[in-house]
Specification:
42% of the residues lie in helices and 18% in strands. It is α/β, with parallel strands linked by helices and 313 residues long. The chain folds into two domains: 80 residues, Ribosomal Protein S8, Chain: A, domain 1; 216 residues, P-loop containing nucleotide triphosphate hydrolases (Rossmann fold). A six-stranded parallel beta sheet has the order 8-7-9-10-6-11. The chain has a three-stranded antiparallel beta sheet with strand order 1-3-2, with helices on one face. The chain has a two-stranded antiparallel sheet with strand order 4-5. Helix 9 links the parallel strand 9 and strand 10. Helix 3 runs antiparallel to helix 4, helix 5 crosses helix 6 and helix 9 packs across helix 10.
C-alpha cells in the first residue's frame, strides 16, 4: 500500500497504586476534584479498585499521572494542606477554577475567568462591577487556595464599616457586635470554602483576619493575601492608607461597585480616583465586570441593565 503512512497505535497500559494508608477524602478532594484534574491534565482514566487506584491510558501519560498521585499520597499522610500544595501544579494549567477544602469554584463567565487570571499574574488587582458578579466570592476563594498551597502565610479581609465613615460609637454592643453586620459577607464567603472549625482555628491564630478598614492603619502585611471589599465607600485618604499596607510577597485584591457609592455628596470615592491615578502602573490590573458576569437570578442582570440605562440618559 504505497504512499500510506501508517502511524503506530498508542500503547495502552495500566498502573495500580495502593492507597491503604491514605484517607481517600484527602487524596480525592471535594467531589473528587483532585483526581478529575489529574485525569484531564494527563488524559488518563482513574478508578478505585480494592484500596488501590488503577490508572489507564497512554504509557507516558500513565507514568506521569502515577508520579503525581504518588507525590500526593506522600503528602496525604500528613494532611490536606500539603496535598493542596501538590495539586496547585495541576491548578496552574486551569486558571479559570479554584480548589478549596469545601468546594471547587469555577468561573462561569469570561469576565470571571479574566479576573482569576489577573490575580495570578499581578500583585494588585482592582475588580469593579455590579453586585452578583462574584468579585468578593471569587477573591476570597482565591485567597483560601493561596493559603492552602502555602503561597501566602495569612489572609486579611477588610471593608469600610458603616458607610465608609466607620462611626461605630452610636451602635449598641461591643466592637465585635458593632462591626459584625458589615463584615458578615466576608465571614459567609470564608465559611463557603473552609470548614467552620478551621476558620475558627485560623482566626484564633491570626492566620485569617477579618476587620474594619480602620484596623489596617499602621500595619505592613508581608506574605499575605489582602482583600478590600466595598471599596467604593473608601475615601481617597483611606484608599491610600490601605494600598500602602502592602508588604513583600503579598497579593492585594480591591473590589467595589462604583454605581453604589454611599459616601456624602462632597466626598470623592477612593475607588473612582484610583482608576485614573494608578491605571498606568505596571503590576496593577483593573478588571471590569458587567451585567453579563452576574451569576445570580436572571432578573438581576435585567435590573442592573435598567439602572445603567437610566444613569446614561
Amino acid at each position: 500500500m504505497g504512499g500510506v503512512d501508517l502511524q503506530p497505535l498508542p500503547i495502552i497500559v495500566k498502573a495500580t497504586i495502593p492507597i491503604h494508608d491514605v484517607d481517600p477524602t484527602i487524596l480525592f478532594g471535594c467531589n473528587d476534584e483532585f483526581i478529575k484534574k489529574i485525569q484531564t491534565r494527563f488524559n488518563v482514566t482513574i478508578a478505585l479498585r480494592n484500596n488501590a487506584l488503577q490508572v489507564k491510558g497512554d504509557e507516558k501519560n500513565v507514568r506521569d499521572a502515577a508520579r503525581m498521585i504518588k507525590q500526593m499520597i506522600g503528602t496525604g499522610e500528613t494532611g490536606k494542606d500539603d496535598v493542596y500544595k501538590k495539586v496547585s501544579e495541576v491548578e496552574e494549567n486551569d486558571p479559570s477554577q479554584v480548589t478549596t477544602p469545601k468546594r471547587l469554584v469555577k468561573a462561569k463567565t469570561e469576565g470571571q475567568a479574566s479576573y482569576l487570571s489577573a490575580i495570578d499574574n499581578n500583585d494588585i488587582v482592582i475588580s469593579i462591577g455590579p453586585a452578583g458578579t462574584g468579585k468578593t466570592y471569587l477573591g476570597v476563594a482565591k485567597a483560601v487556595a493561596y493559603l492552602m498551597a502555602h503561597k501566602v502565610e495569612r489572609i486579611m479581609l477588610t471593608r469600610p464599616a458603616v458607610e465608609a465613615g466607620e462611626s461605630l460609637g452610636f451602635l449598641p454592643g461591643a466592637i465585635e457586635e458593632k462591626v459584625d453586620p458589615y463584615l458578615r459577607p466576608l465571614f459567609d464567603a470564608l465559611n463557603d470554602f473552609l470548614p467552620f472549625d478551621r476558620v475558627k482555628k485560623y482566626m484564633a491564630m491570626k492566620t485569617i483576619e477579618v476587620a474594619p478598614l480602620a484596623y489596617m492603619r499602621g500595619r505592613t502585611l508581608n506574605d499575605s493575601f489582602i482583600i478590600l471589599d466595598e471599596a467604593q465607600n473608601t475615601t481617597s485618604i483611606q484608599m491610600k492608607m490601605f494600598l500602602t499596607r502592602m508588604g513583600w510577597r503579598s497579593k492585594v485584591v480591591v473590589t467595589g461597585d462604583i454605581t453604589q457609592v454611599d459616601l456624602p455628596p462632597n466626598v470623592f470615592s477612593g475607588l473612582i480616583e484610583i482608576q485614573h491615578l494608578l491605571k498606568a502602573i505596571e503590576g496593577i490590573k483593573f478588571v471590569y465586570l458587567n451585567e453579563k458576569d452576574v451569576v445570580r437570578h436572571h432578573l438581576v442582570q435585567k435590573m442592573i441593565r435598567a439602572y445603567e440605562e437610566k444613569n446614561t440618559k
